[in-house]
Each structure stands twice: as structure tokens, then as C-alpha cells.
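Researcher: Next sequence.
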Amino acid sequence: MISLIIFLLILGIVIISHEFGHFIVAKKLGVKVEKFSFGFGRILWKKKKGDTEYCLSAIPLGGFVKLAGDSIQEYKGKPDEYFSRPPIQRAAIIFFGPMINYILGFICLWVIFFSGYPTLTSKVGGLLDDFGAKSAGIKVGDKIVSIEGAKVSYWDDLQKQVQENKDRAYLMVTVSREDKLYDYKVEIKTKQLDDSLGQKRSFGLIGIMPADDIVNVRHGPIKSLYLGFRKTVDMTVITYKALWFLVTGKLSMRESMTGPLGIFMITSKAAKLGITALLHLLAVLNISLAIFNLLPFPVLDGGHLLLLGIEKIRGKGISVKTEQVINQIGISILLFLAVVVTYNDLMRIFGKNLAKLFR
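Model: Next structure:
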């Protein structure tokens, strides 16, 4: 029950933030907002305040903001209607939905870096046979303090230095053992392994495993801003790479995409790990939603922005019939993807027992 509440809370934050972006810019530009809804389907609660009706609906898997005159069929030429605004203002209303998600994702990452997060130290917890570290004389319990002269404090630092120097034959590794420093010349091997996107890459290996030695790392407010920004950029780049690999068939949809059911399972696990894991999940969901919505695909925010760009260039929008056809195709594809993703989530959770039901 607690996991469900946390799941709905996180989903609610992501969705409401997105719709608030559309809402606040529309209000700022003088466009009437007729309805602000969290969820779809049967309305469970509603309240009218000013021109806007605020609703809570039965299916909490999305939301929407209904603007006055936001379709050609409804447009009456009033100054407070969506289609009364020039393309650049309509684009701003659409863009600020995903933009708010981006900002919220960045803020979550800043809070993580500023408040502290658990990370592994560079202490050696295990050694692999036939690799350089064991052959050189490094022992379990040693703490690696530098590689090729670069200071190492945490496991991430260690991995980064090894990968940056993977083309060398040997690495100069300094370890701390019983308050004394020892230098070792460690052979490095390269192997082709799968990266986080399932693609084969060359990795440098010296044959060590981390110890179960975890510390809480905190940074100052300014450095946290920088680290949060850099992490946001990294997540954006890897997400677009993953999307490209999906389109080109290099990445399996089954292994790389998840829907509400999968997010619920991830949320349940994150809740057990604490607030930092939940904040990280919230950051990932916000940034992922922003990226997905900005794709130039029909019915998504990016699709609307693309049509507004065409309108700006042509001096007029596409015909109503053409837009309807484009949107219908887009909705059909999204519904198909939703079915496939949900089936994949069920297969991951229930495995072979579920497969038997579809035979």
C-alpha cells in the first residue's frame, strides 16, 4: 500500500509539473485555461476557481490542460483563445510543459549532490585471477589512492581513471595499506563488454572488485549546481542514444522501455533504498518525460512544435483534415507501443507463466 502511495505521488509530481508548465505560460500570455486535469476518465473531484475547473480523475496515468479555442473547430476568434496567439506564443505554451520537467529533474539532482548520496570508496574488496592487480601484489583491503598520479577517493573515480588510461600497457597504482603507501605497476587488459545500452565497447580491466565500504558524499551548493547540470546533460545524451538505437534496431524495446507497471516496480525498490533513490527516480522520470514529449512525433508536444514551425515558415497552418489524419496515426502508434510495453512489463514480472496464457 505504501509503495502504491509513493508511486502515485511520484507520478502525480511528474504529470502535474508538466501540465503546470503549459498552464502557467498560457495564463501569463492571457489565454483562458478552461480545465486542468490530473488523470483521465471518470471525474472523482472537481472545483471551479476563476475561469478554470480543476479536476482529479479516476485513471492517474496522465493529465491535460484544456485551453479555450485550442482546436480550429472550437476557435471563435476571441482574444483569450489559443489560436488567437501567434505561433511563437503557442510554441511557448507547448514547450514549457517539458521544460518544467527538465527544470524539476535538474533540481532533484542538485538536491542529491547537495544533501549527500551514498557511494562506494576505492577500497579493494576482491581480486580476480589472471589480472594485473593480483599479479602486481595488490591485496584485499587495500585502498587505492591514485592511478597515474590522479587522486582517487571513490569507486567511480577509480573506474574513470582506468578507462581513461585503458590504452596503456601498465598503470602506476598507489595504494594505502596500514597507513603506508605502496606503488604498483599494474598490467591493464582490454575486453569487449556490453555497456549500459547493450552495445559492445572496449573496457580496461585490472581485476579488482569493490568492497562493501560506503560513505555519504556531499558537495557545496555551487558545485552541486555544476554536477546536477552535468548529470542532466549526460542523462539527456544517453537517452537520445538509446532512442536512436531503438529506431535502428541496435537496442531491444523489451529490455529498454517500461510503462506504468514497470515504473511501479522500480518505485517499490527505490522506496526501500531511501529518499536519495526516490529523488533520483523522480529526476530520471522528469527528464525522460521531457525528452519523450519533445520528440517531433504527432500528438506529442514535439509534434505540435514541428507543426507550428511549419506554420511559421509557410505563413499558414496545415489543413484541419491533414492534422486530424496525422494525429490519428500518432495516437494509433502510441497505443500500440503502450500495449507492447505493458506486455513486456508483465513478461519481466511474471515470466513464463504469463507467456503460457498467450499461447
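Model: The chain has eleven helices and twelve strands. Residues 320-350 form the longest helix (31 residues).
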